[in-house]
Structures are given as structure tokens and as C-alpha cells.
Design brief:
With 330 residues, the chain is of the alpha/beta class. Helix content is 43%, strand content 13%. It has two domains: 245 residues, Aldolase class I (TIM Barrel); 68 residues, Non-ribosomal Peptide Synthetase Peptidyl Carrier Protein, Chain A, CATH 1.10.1200. It has an eight-stranded parallel β-barrel with strand order 3-4-6-7-8-9-10-11, surrounded by six helices. Strands 1-2 form a two-stranded antiparallel sheet. Strand 1 and strand 2 form a beta hairpin. The model has no long low-confidence stretch (mean pLDDT 92).
């Protein structure tokens, strides 16, 4: 049984990765229904929280149906991070996660996200201070290192564990790689197989098929998989992985009706949460994947991603149901 603090997560939990402008409450709700064992919020700026910036504060919205849910924060200033912990605690998440892995330049240039991989002592200091500042389990998401020549993830993981980190998720790329090339899970396995490690070690990066998740479990011996891009427009992915792990067979692809219903509910929840303008805008990125595999779909997709009114998008969904009712997904 894998546990984060006192939270029991099963034998090989599947975690929804924190993804900027993706892992919002509507998407998290769909992924939870689709089999995710733990979901994480989009990453939230500690500086934004303590300045009461509207966008940062809104990301704190969590709902009972999501639990267990982790709120992820990032920053490089110790005082700001500790103050943000107090703000986060007030929303009563199950987990506080620290982002030490975001490779985006605007985050890294401030020494936050993957930028802190250049300063491991500060990384450890921040983690230790946050662990001492809250009763909630504190977890870390990071990368292998800054670049190929500075990978010290075994040492880093040990030191984070020693100061009270409750679990670690490791993306199998360096910051220099960004999202290019293949994720390397071998160093993550070395962390897990280190006899000094006793906290859960989750793998992240390129878990894009059920077979890959099984490989992460059976070949690399990790405690669970954190899934990101493979779930976008595909909240069923978690249950597909679980079915394959248990039965060794693939679940049938979701029906057209299931895809339309998921896309409709996604848009509906987004509009309820953020209003029509942002709700319509921020669900657009999911539509390509919701309807992936249907031939000659471009005219419908174009209308979905250019319509500014929810009712117009709902109308396109109805037309898709009618147009593709007899076509099998390819």
C-alpha cells in the first residue's frame, strides 16, 4: 500500500500531474471520475498568493469530490513560500506540493521551479522550512537535474526525504531538455532502489500508454505514475491504465456519445467556474484530443475553437453526434 502521510493510495496509484491552464477544477473532476487516485492543482505562484492576485487565488478552489487533492505552489523566496503555506492551508487540501521542476523561462529566471536545481541547498532549505510550517504532508515534484552534467537526483531525493518530504515525483528529463527527447526513467529507478529511500517515488514523463505505465511499475519498480499530457482531452486514461494492469487487455475506446458528453460537461463546468468568456476559451485545448481519430473532423474542430459562445459550441457537439454516429474511431 502506497501512502502519502496517512493517505492510503493503493498499490500503484495514478496521479494527475499539475499542468498550467489545464489542471483546473473541471478537468480534475473528470480525471477523478476517470480513475485518477490523486489530483494536483495548476502550479500557483507564492508571490501571487501573498499579493492576493486574483488568478493565483482562484487556483486555490478545490472541491470535496476531488479528494485527495494536492495544491502545488512555486517560488524561491523563503518568507513568501511560508506565508503562502498559511494561505494554502486555509483551503484545506490534503497535500501541499512544491514545484521544483517547471522549466519555463519566466519561472526559472526567478530561481523558482527547475531554476532551483542550480541551488540544491536552497531547495532543501525551502522544503525543510515548509515541512516544519504545516501539519499537512509536503511533497515535491522535480526533474533529474538542471542538465545532463549536473544530475544528482539520488542525493537530492535523499536530502529531501531527510528533511521530511513525504513523497517525490520525478520527471525523467532535465531542465535543459524541456519536453524534448525521451524521458529517462533509469535515474528515477535508481532513486527508488536506493536502500536509504522509504518515501514513495513516483515517475513522470512519457506515460502515454497503459503499457508504459506497466513498464514503470514492473521494469522500473516505481511506486506510482504521474500522468500529464496523455490525459488532456482523455480523462478516461487512468481507468484504461488500471484495466490493462489488472486484465492485460485494453478497454474499448470511449464511444462518440461518451466523448461528446465529457466535452459538454467539461465546458459546462468551466463556464460555471470561470464565466463564459474564460470557460469557453480555456476548454479549447482539449477538443482535439476528445475527438482524436475521427476523419475529416477539421471543420467541426475549427468551429469549436473559434466560437466564443458556449451555446454555439454545444450546437457543434450535437452536429458531431449526428455526423459521426456511424463512424468508428481510427
Amino acid at each position: 500500500m502506497v501512502k502519502i502521510g496517512d493517505i492510503e493510495l493503493g498499490d500503484f496509484p495514478l496521479l494527475l500531474a499539475p499542468m498550467e491552464d489545464v489542471s483546473d477544477p473541471p478537468f480534475r473532476a473528470l480525471c477523478k471520475e476517470g480513475g485518477a487516485d490523486v489530483v494536483f492543482t495548476e502550479f500557483i505562484s507564492s508571490e501571487g498568493l501573498i499579493r492576493d492576485a486574483a488568478k493565483s487565488v482562484q487556483k486555490l478552489d478545490i472541491y470535496e469530490k476531488e479528494r485527495p487533492v494536492g495544491i502545488q505552489i512555486f517560488g524561491a523566496n523563503l518568507d513568501s513560500m511560508l506565508r503562502s503555506v498559511e494561505i494554502v492551508e486555509a483551503t484545506k487540501p490534503d497535500i501541499i506540493d512544491i514545484n521544483f521542476g517547471c522549466p519555463v523561462k519566466k519561472v526559472v529566471c526567478k530561481g523558482a521551479g527547475a531554476g532551483i536545481l542550480k541551488d540544491i541547498p536552497m531547495m532543501v532549505k525551502l522544503t525543510e522550512a515548509m515541512v516544519k510550517h504545516t501539519q499537512l504532508p509536503v511533497t515535491v515534484k522535480t526533474r533529474l537535474g538542471w542538465d545532463h552534467d549536473s544530475i544528482k537526483i539520488i542525493e537530492v531525493a535523499e536530502r529531501l526525504q531527510d528533511v521530511g518530504c513525504a513523497a517525490i515525483s520525478i520527471h525523467g528529463r532535465t531542465r535543459a531538455q524541456m519536453y524534448k527527447g525521451d524521458a529517462d526513467w533509469r535515474p528515477i529507478a535508481e532513486v527508488k532502489n536506493n536502500p536509504r529511500m522509504h518515501i514513495p517515488v513516483f515517475g513522470n514523463g512519457d506515460v502515454n500508454t497503459p503499457e508504459r505505465a506497466v513498464e514503470m511499475r514492473d521494469v522500473y519498480g516505481l511506486d506510482g505514475a504521474m500522468i500529464g499530457r496523455a490525459s488532456i482531452g482523455n480523462p478516461w486514461f487512468f481507468n484504461q491504465v488500471k484495466h490493462f494492469m489488472e486484465k492485460g487487455t485494453h478497454l474499448p475506446a470511449p464511444s462518440l456519445a461518451a466523448r461528446v458528453e465529457a466535452a459538454r460537461r467539461h465546458l459546462e463546468m468551466s463556464v460555471d467556474w470561470k464565466g463564459e468568456v474564460l470557460g469557453v476559451l480555456e476548454t479549447r485545448r482539449h477538443y482535439t484530443n476528445y475527438f482524436k481519430g475521427y476523419t475529416n473532423f477539421k471543420p467541426f474542430r475549427t468551429r469549436m475553437v473559434t466560437s466564443n459562445k458556449a451555446e454555439e459550441v454545444y450546437q457543434v457537439f450535437e452536429e458531431v453526434l449526428e455526423a459521426y454516429s456511424t463512424q468508428e474511431v481510427v
